[in-house]
Amino acid sequence: MAARPRVLAIAGSDPSAGAGLQADLKTMFACGVYGMTVVTAVTAQNSRGVSAVWPVPPEAVAAQLDAVLGDIGVDAVKIGMLARADTVHVVADRLAALDVPIIVDPVGFASHGEPLADTDARAVLRSRLLPLATLVTPNLAEAAELAGVTVHEETDLELAAWAMKTLGPEWVLVKGGHLAGDAVDALYDGVTVRFFRSPRIATAHTHGTGCTLASAIASYLARGYSVPDAVGRAKDAVTAAIAGGFPLGSGTGPVDHDRLLDFR
């Protein structure tokens, strides 16, 4: 059996498995790659929200990174929740010399609005990690936080993508899923803006959508897809997963990661 591409997720743990590293691993398996994890924080969360966050000490994050990079290696990296500035520094230090796609999902807040990273962590992410990124995937709130651009309608997506690009990533994907109408995302490389559109799905069960999209993109990049093709395939796969979202608990249920198998 041929070795699968290796993708490393650096993020927080979600015990309900709707988001975080658990969603990353489910996504990576479905997309046909070998998923690995570095735990940056332990959270207490469920379908109703996040009730507590315990950041992992930076030396433990460094040791996990050294263990994976020093033995197994990686073909792509997906970065999610980084709660502390010293953790961001550790991750940036370890990834600076890597020549693989790095996808940054700049998680600042949980889907119910709870903060997942402090102000210093977001500042260091902006200055140290975004310049290393092959692709950064902010939603509208994250684009406003990082680049100072508020998106009110679809025509504002291009400006937000341009503002995010000035922070140093190679590509930017601004996710417009919280706008009215179709779910439209804007991909920008500093020259061309590409729009990816999908019909809005009437569902309350969208827990883990951002984690799943970023991990799917990282998986397809590890498999050799170009950035635009990886984004387009991941967008289609996640749209299918949202359509299959199901109730679990008393709040926002997860997307259906099994639907991603159709896009392996």
Automatic annotation (TrEMBL):
Keywords: ATP-binding, Kinase, Nucleotide-binding, Thiamine biosynthesis, Transferase
A GO molecular-function annotation: phosphomethylpyrimidine kinase activity
Listed Pfam families: Phos_pyr_kin
SUPFAM superfamilies membership: Ribokinase-like (SSF53613)
Cross-referenced InterPro entries: HMP/HMP-P_kinase_dom, PM/HMP-P_kinase-1, Ribokinase-like
EC number: 2.7.4.7
Catalytic activity: 4-amino-5-hydroxymethyl-2-methylpyrimidine + ATP = 4-amino-2-methyl-5-(phosphooxymethyl)pyrimidine + ADP + H(+); 4-amino-2-methyl-5-(phosphooxymethyl)pyrimidine + ATP = 4-amino-2-methyl-5-(diphosphooxymethyl)pyrimidine + ADP
Described purpose of this protein according to its UniProt entry: Catalyzes the phosphorylation of hydroxymethylpyrimidine phosphate (HMP-P) to HMP-PP, and of HMP to HMP-P.
Name used for this protein in its record: Phosphomethylpyrimidine kinase
Source species: Acidothermus cellulolyticus (strain ATCC 43068 / DSM 8971 / 11B)
Taxonomic path: Bacteria, Bacillati, Actinomycetota, Actinomycetes, Acidothermales
